[in-house]
Amino acid sequence: MSRSVGFLLFLVLTVGGGLAIGYITLPGEWYAGLVKPSFNPPNWIFPPVWTILYVLIAVAGWRVWDRDLTSAQQFWWAQLVLNFLWSPVFFGFQQMGVGLLVIVLLLISIIGFIRVAWEPERPAALMFIPYLVWVAFATLLNVSLYLLNPVS
């Protein structure tokens, strides 16, 4: 497969998949009715932030694929699966506790990717830093929502 086709496939899979899952699992009435922490951002901020992050995730994934960095690729695929799983678990099934488990595992896989990609492919590792910061913030939101909205 040519490099440009590979790059395009990574973009389509990551950006397209992420946006599709986001659209399918829109927060809805359940989320609107939750008690939210004071630092909860407005809903309009999520689509542009995730679009930018998905582009960075795709480019980083393509870079480690293009260089055939097996360990980094494994962490990249793990984070993508966990990323795509979180919204259906949290919004679709309304399982904040299970969502918290998924997002913590996502955070660990992001850190793992940065760690194994740092030496051989530093640009890809650096592309994951904004993602790490955002998911750390999202983890704090998930914890806060879980604590503020006890399951009856």
Automatic annotation (TrEMBL):
Keywords: Kinase, Membrane, Transferase, Transmembrane, Transmembrane helix. It is a multi-pass membrane protein. The chain crosses the membrane at residues 44-63, 75-93, 99-118, 125-148. Pfam families: TspO_MBR. CDD domains: TSPO_MBR. One of its GO terms (molecular function) is kinase activity. GO terms for cellular component: membrane. Gene3D superfamilies: TspO/MBR protein. PANTHER family: PERIPHERAL-TYPE BENZODIAZEPINE RECEPTOR (PTHR10057), TRANSLOCATOR PROTEIN (PTHR10057:SF0). Belongs to the TspO/BZRP family. This is Sensor histidine kinase. It comes from Phyllobacterium myrsinacearum.
